Amino acid sequence: MSDSEKYGQPSDEARVGELISSPSTETVDDDALLAKLGYKSEFIREFGNLETFSFAMSIMGMTASIATTFTTPLTYGGVASVVWCWLAGSIMNISLGASIAEIVSAYPTAGGLYTASAQLVPRSYRPIVGWVTGYLNILGQIAGVASTEWGLSGMILGAVVVCRENYVIQNWHQFLLFTALLIMHGLLNSMPTAGLARTTRYFVFINIGSAIIIIITLLATTPRADMHPGSYIFTEVSNGTGWPSNGLAVMMGLLSVQWTMTDYDAAAHISEEVHRAAIAAPVAIFVAVLNTGAIGWILNIVLCVCAGDVTELPGASGNAFLGIMYLRMGRAGAMVLWSFVCLVAAFTVQTALQANSRTVFAFSRDGAFPDRGFLGRLNKTTRTPVIAVWFVVFISVLMGVLSFASLTAVNAIFSMCAVALDLSYLIPVVCRRIFDGHSEVKFTPGPFFMRGWGLYVNVIMFFWTLFEVTILAFPATYPLTWNTFNYSAPITIAVMALSLIWYYAHGKRYYDGPRSNLSAEEREEIKPDM
To answer: 320-365 vs 386-401: helix axis angle to the nearest 10?
Structure first.
């Protein structure tokens, strides 16, 4: 028996044929699938294939994310850490991208993996599984928005240092810029879906184009005699962690690739705004992972080849990526290309905030917040969750306020991004396998379906995620002090513990899992298919 027959589905050819029908039929098919999942569409579908792929690429913000995190592997493990950790991480993260894409294809809703997790367990477990997944995912997404915006503000001020050598970055300067940027992105995300789609359409060209131009320019402006040979960049380890193990020092470089390749399910959260969401969203996720991994590895290699004396990095700007560009291109050339890197970072925040607001909207729509659905309302004019957008902006600003208490604390909050998100991705994948065949769990694959290979990919994803999360939560330097300890895991655990206490104390009285917004008549009409 074929996999399609096992799950009671039409053949791949028939399914794909249905998905590439006319735009009007696409919308009907999207809405019909959404109705089978218990929801009716409240958004306007304006995102096509290009916009969705551009969105998925932008959420990873390859060039800007590498610029923000390149200093970490270079400092902790040397150039070998930069090159090998990116290669290993990008290959293993394919299992994450594929596993998530398969789930998203089956459950293309604004709730993303939060909604899927609750659907993939028996009814008695749906409230607690949905609650934990939702809060873990929202925590990671807000930390991602805040950390990327904080990184962007640092990149802009780093450019000021290059242009004005006597300037010293002050924390309050960065906080004010951080807040202003968040407000700007809040305003942009208050646009109607059509405006968001038109804006997002061009992000991918600037993202990939800036990476290619930087690669070519660095190679063209670096004298052959100053280029590091392959025998150096693939083998040179410089243990800057203080830990006695060079292997551990090298593995600390995973922070760069894992922080870049996160928020995989962002495209899922705009599914209710996407045409042919069941195929467009998962394909965009998977292809974005492949492109980011391949182009990002080449960019990292070129940066190491052209780095010069790595002991002089990161330089006055505090950013090794910018330091290398300044060394090879001079001030004017570096500033021109750096402006595009900052623009890519701005695109990343723009898309991350859009995805985050849709998750908050879905969570509130399902009654998981004690807000009586306030955050789950759409603006009547824009048909977008404007209230949820500004809620995320507000919480992100509060995270930035912690910088005045301790930069260690705010960095710990920001580092939760990859830890919390990657852990939230494990839940639906594990639940699907544990409860496969259960009478109350009927997983119907979407067009993106891995068939028999899916189990092996899921197993790889499971063990890789546990491994990389352990590394990301491990203290990066030794000896341990209050300022060097990695607080990401304790803070994540503390926040989740508080959410569970709230659930058992009060939340279970009003939340019983994802809540359908269909009327009684609409539910009766589609009951045989649900």
So the answer is: 130
What DSSP line would sit under 214-234, residue for residue? Answer: HHHHHHHHS-GGGSPPHHHHT
Locate 246 and state its tokens.
């060079």
Helix H or strand E encompassing 432: helix 407-434
Which burial class, exposed, middle or buried, applies to 510 when counting CB atoms under 10 A from its CB (0-12, 13-18, 19+)?
A: exposed
Query: In whole angstroms, what is the distance from residue 418 CA to residue 428 CA?
Result: 17
Separation CA 324–CA 81 (nearest Å): 17
Q: What percentage of residues in the chain have a pLDDT greater than 70?
A: 92
**Tokens describing residue 465:** 């995620």
Q: Which of 327, 303, 341 is nearest to 81 (CA)?
A: 303
Residues 6+ away with beta carbon under 8 Å from 77:
85, 237, 238, 239, 240, 241, 246, 249, 250, 251, 252, 253
223 — phi, psi (to 5°)?
Answer: -55, 145
Q: Quick one: tokens of 8?
A: 């009671």
CA distance 367 to 70: 41
Could you tell me the two tokens for 288?
């974005």
Residues 112 and 122 sit within 8 Å (Cβ to Cβ): no
DSSP class per residue in 89-103: HHHHHHHHHHHHHHH
pTM: 0.88
Question: Is the pLDDT assigned to residue 230 strictly greater than 60?
Answer: yes
Strand locations in 114-257 (E): none
The β-bridge partners of 274 are 47
Residue 38 falls in which region: left (phi positive, over 0), alpha (psi -120 to 50) or beta: left
**Phi first, then psi: what are they for 274, rounded to 5°?**
-115, 135
**Tell me, what amino acid is at 225?**
A
Cα separation, 117 vs 514, whole angstroms? 10
Six token digits for residue 369: 């917040």
The encoded tokens of residue 371 equal 């807000």
DSSP 288-315: HHHHHHHHHHHHHHHHHHT---GGG-ST
What is the per-residue pLDDT across 267-284, written as a single tens digit (0 to 9) for each?
888 888 998 888 999 999
Q: What is the pLDDT of residues 22-36, one digit of tens each?
A: 333 444 478 788 888
Angular region, 508: left φ>0, alpha ψ -120 to 50, beta rest: alpha
Q: Which residues are CB-contacts of 315 (< 8 A; sequence separation ≥ 6)?
A: 322, 323, 326
Positive or negative, the CA dihedral 19, 517, 355, 127 is negative
C-alpha to C-alpha distance for 309 and 272, rounded to whole angstroms: 50
Cβ neighbours around 522 below 10 Å, total: 14
pLDDT at 473 over 70: yes
d(CA 167, CA 63): 26
